[in-house]
């Protein structure tokens, strides 16, 4: 073989570089595909949870009203809490992984909008439950169960996290160094508050089920079966959100344009 037909050192280096780029692109494609499949499955669990919640409250618990009937006013509480504090909050903490190819600034705004929506729904849900206690005849005591303690702490921490996150990362925004220092704390706290929301929802659902079905629960009527499935969907929706948010494979890597945007906002 003549020396002409042998690849030069430069050509060899180029082909190794090309191969490693192709392998990286393939690995990235696989990660995105795995993420998408799990994300759609998680969303399906969340949609199933909301449909079952709505069916339960309409079919078995009298539907919805506001001040005209405190019993049905209460029903807004579980519905809006599960839409806001679980479904929307869960999707909000996944926004950076779901939109890994989108510019960071846009994702930050979407993350804040979803959190803002959760906040509004949680306020209405709390007003519904407090009103349903205060205006009942006779009035029902407030804040005596551990569900209500967990729930209130969750709502307060969520509000603090939302305000602190907004001021640190969006407006007025901290310096780049401070933002990088605060980010891991923000991520850990946000995930912990989501776990607290799951605990609050499951304890709320348990106490409501035991109070309304009482000894009839053991006969497993259709309402009990519906609630049990609802609780399973709710719990596993939470487990899958936590898995997706914690797997380092699915973590978004900064795009070149993010670096420019981040540097210019310093
Ligand atoms: C993240 C979700 C949730 C949060 C943050 C939360 C928060 C709260 C809070 C702060 C209270 C106290 C209201 C008062 O004392 O007047 C409460 C009451 C109540 N919640 Fe929830 N809740 C959540 C989800 C649910 C769900 C899914 C149910 C299911 C039915 C539920 C059922 C109840 C019931 C029955 C009460 C009245 C009895 C009590 O005070 O424990 N909650 N909730």
Automatic annotation (TrEMBL):
It holds the Pfam family Cytochrom_B561. Keywords: Electron transport, Heme, Iron, Membrane, Metal-binding, Transmembrane, Transmembrane helix, Transport. GO terms for molecular function: metal ion binding; oxidoreductase activity. The keyword Transmembrane applies. The chain crosses the membrane at residues 38-58, 78-97, 109-129, 149-171, 183-205, 225-245. PROSITE patterns: CYTOCHROME_B561 (PS50939). Residues 41-246 form the Cytochrome b561 domain. It is found in: Membrane. It comes from Zophobas morio. InterPro entries: CYB561/CYBRD1-like, Cyt_b561/ferric_Rdtase_TM. Gene3D superfamilies: 1.20.120.1770. Its cofactor is heme b. It is a multi-pass membrane protein. This is Cytochrome b561 domain-containing protein. Signal peptide: none annotated. One of its GO terms (cellular component) is membrane. It comes from the Eukaryota.
């Amino acid at each position: 073989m003549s020396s002409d037909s042998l690849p030069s050192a430069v050509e060899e280096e180029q082909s190794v570089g090309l191969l490693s780029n192709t392998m990286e692109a393939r690995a990235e494609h696989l990660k995105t595909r795995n993420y998408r499949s799990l994300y759609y499955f998680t969303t399906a669990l969340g949609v199933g949870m909301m449909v079952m919640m709505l069916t339960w409250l309409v079919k078995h618990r009298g539907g919805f009203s506001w001040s005209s009937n405190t019993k049905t006013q209460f029903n807004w509480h579980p519905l809006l809490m599960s839409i806001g504090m679980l479904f929307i909050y869960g999707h909000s903490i996944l926004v950076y992984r779901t939109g890994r190819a989108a510019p960071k600034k846009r994702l930050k705004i979407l993350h804040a909008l979803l959190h803002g929506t959760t906040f509004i729904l949680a306020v209405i849900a709390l007003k519904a439950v407090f009103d349903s206690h205060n205006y009942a005849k006779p009035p029902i005591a407030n804040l005596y169960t551990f569900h209500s303690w967990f729930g209130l702490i969750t709502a307060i921490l969520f509000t603090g996290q939302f305000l602190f996150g907004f001021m640190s990362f969006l407006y007025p925004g901290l310096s780049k160094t401070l933002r990088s220092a605060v980010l891991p704390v923000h991520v850990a706290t946000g995930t912990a508050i989501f776990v607290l929301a799951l605990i609050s929802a499951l304890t709320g659902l348990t106490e409501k089920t035991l109070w309304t079905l009482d000894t009839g629960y053991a006969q497993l009527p259709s309402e009990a079966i519906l609630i049990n499935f609802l609780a399973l969907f709710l719990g596993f929706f939470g487990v899958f959100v936590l898995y997706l948010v914690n797997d380092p494979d699915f973590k978004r890597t900064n795009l070149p344009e993010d670096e420019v945007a981040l540097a210019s906002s310093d």
